[in-house]
């Protein structure tokens, strides 16, 4: 045998061809087993996930754990009280008010915002200016809670000259109920008029035939007599009892009391009543020059009364930020901001509704209300749930609007849990143990809503 016939590796036996292949396959399987489902090695995935996990732990896990731990200690942080802070949370009247207001917020604000978003999305679907309308409705979302709070603090101002809400309300009220002609006016001191209850004034002496009645008043607002005429002294007239009502005040001084001096203004539009035995027997209204006339047959022997309606304070609107209405008013500002958010999401869902179903229903004789109630709303149910759940989680954390809009006198009535958490932790009576307990309670309130949302997302993925 020659050297050429000897194998190069010095072996005398041939190696089966499939042996190497099998070994390679086994090594490749082990390599594949060391890789994850996505084809990435486990340690590489861990390296990339580590920064996110560190941030998650530092910003979420650690604060939650520390809040739970801190809630078990007293205000100083040294005395262990167990669940004492949680018991105090439910026994404190202010916190109970905050909890009750949170329930109102969770029920009303998301429901109203979602309902308005649905209505806006459906009604603007077929109009040319629908896009512009949606832009205007969505625009408040670009405003921060701080700015929105400042805006609505002015909107709800009690003074109709500043507050838009009361300006509109007073305008509507005064359209159907005329305001008093001279609010706040009163008789001149030492005049014959005396207070007679209900804001009215009655003469001490009775009316005599041929003797004009003098009704001098003061404390009239300058704006109420800006265009008034010069008062005129009423003269005797046959069969009538006459008199004059005027502003007994001369600019610059020098006027005489109970005498109509030059420059003294007439009080037009006053209701003048003749009263006998507590009953009104005659009535008249003062003319532009302040004079009035009553039938002598009824007025003689009676007393003259100026009713309280002549001097009632001007209607100043509604106390929107008072204890009774402060929470609904703040919810209104929240709806103004978030109805656009709901509208945009619902409009996106509405764009995916099959039009043939709507047209088929109309062909079958269904009117628009039936199409909306029986087809549109059921098909939009998943989107409506998303919007509703998102807003519910959002309102559980509401803080800025309440803190900015509610005045100090009504802040306790408008209190919510997030605001109470801030006040308990950083307010005048600092108690971080109680504040941590409120924070943990808020977390427990949010968890069921989040669980429902996660279950819904899983169901959507399975489909």
Automatic annotation (TrEMBL):
Compositionally biased region (Low complexity): 1-20
Top-level division of the source organism's lineage: Bacteria
Entry keyword annotation includes Transport: yes
Residues that span the membrane, as ranges: 42-64, 103-123, 135-156, 335-353, 379-406, 434-454
All copies of domain ABC transmembrane type-1, residue ranges: 99-453
Membrane topology: Multi-pass membrane protein
Location(s) in or outside the cell: Cell membrane
Keywords, alphabetical: Cell membrane, Membrane, Transmembrane, Transmembrane helix, Transport
Name of a matching Pfam family: BPD_transp_1
Region of interest called Disordered, as start-end residue ranges on this chain: 1-32
SUPFAM superfamilies given in the database record: MetI-like
Keyword flag Ribonucleoprotein: no
Subcellular location, principal: membrane
Protein family per UniProt: Belongs to the binding-protein-dependent transport system permease family.
Protein name according to UniProt: ABC transporter permease
Origin organism lineage: Bacteria, Bacillati, Actinomycetota, Actinomycetes, Kitasatosporales
């Amino acid at each position: 045998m020659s050297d050429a016939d000897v194998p190069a590796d010095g072996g005398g036996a041939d190696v089966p061809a499939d042996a190497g292949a099998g070994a390679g396959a086994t090594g490749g399987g082990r390599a594949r087993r060391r890789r994850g489902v996505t084809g990435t090695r486990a340690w590489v995935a861990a390296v990339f996930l580590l920064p996110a996990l560190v941030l998650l732990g530092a910003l979420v896990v650690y604060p939650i754990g520390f809040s739970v731990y801190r809630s078990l200690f007293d205000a100083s942080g040294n005395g262990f009280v167990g669940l004492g802070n949680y018991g105090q949370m439910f026994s404190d009247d202010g916190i109970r008010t905050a909890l009750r207001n949170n329930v109102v917020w969770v029920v009303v604000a998301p429901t109203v915002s979602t309902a308005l978003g649905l209505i806006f999305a459906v009604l603007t679907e077929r109009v040319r200016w629908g896009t512009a309308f949606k832009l205007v409705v969505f625009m408040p979302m670009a405003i921060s809670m701080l700015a929105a709070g400042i805006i609505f603090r002015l909107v709800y101002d009690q003074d109709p000259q500043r507050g838009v809400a009361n300006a509109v309300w007073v305008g509507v009220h005064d359209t159907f109920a005329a305001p008093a002609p001279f609010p706040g006016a009163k008789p001149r001191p030492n005049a014959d008029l005396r207070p007679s209850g209900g804001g009215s004034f009655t003469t001490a002496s009775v009316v005599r035939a041929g003797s004009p009645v003098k009704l001098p008043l003061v404390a009239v607002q300058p704006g109420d007599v800006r265009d008034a005429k010069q008062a005129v002294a009423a003269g005797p007239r046959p069969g009538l009892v006459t008199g004059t009502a005027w502003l007994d005040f001369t600019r610059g001084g020098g006027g005489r009391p109970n005498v109509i001096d030059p420059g003294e203004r007439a009080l037009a539009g006053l209701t003048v009543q003749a009263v006998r035995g507590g009953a009104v027997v005659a009535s008249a209204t003062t003319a532009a020059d302040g004079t009035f006339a009553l039938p002598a047959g009824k007025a003689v022997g009676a007393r003259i009364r100026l009713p309280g309606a002549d001097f009632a304070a001007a209607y100043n609107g509604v106390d929107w930020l008072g204890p009774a209405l402060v929470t609904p008013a703040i919810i209104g500002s929240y709806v103004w901001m978030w109805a656009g958010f709901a509208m945009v999401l619902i409009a996106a869902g509405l764009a995916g509704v099959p039009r043939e179903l709507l047209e088929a229903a109309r062909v079958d004789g269904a009117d628009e209300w039936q199409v909306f109630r029986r087809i549109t709303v059921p098909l939009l149910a998943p989107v409506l749930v998303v919007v509703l759940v998102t807003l519910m989680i959002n309102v559980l954390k509401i803080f800025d609007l309440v803190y900015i809009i509610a005045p100090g006198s009504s802040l306790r009535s408008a209190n919510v849990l997030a605001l109470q958490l801030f006040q308990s932790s950083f307010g005048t009576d600092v108690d971080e143990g109680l504040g941590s307990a409120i924070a943990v309670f808020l977390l427990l309130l949010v968890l069921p809503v989040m669980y429902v949302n996660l279950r819904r997302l899983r169901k959507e993925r399975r489909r």
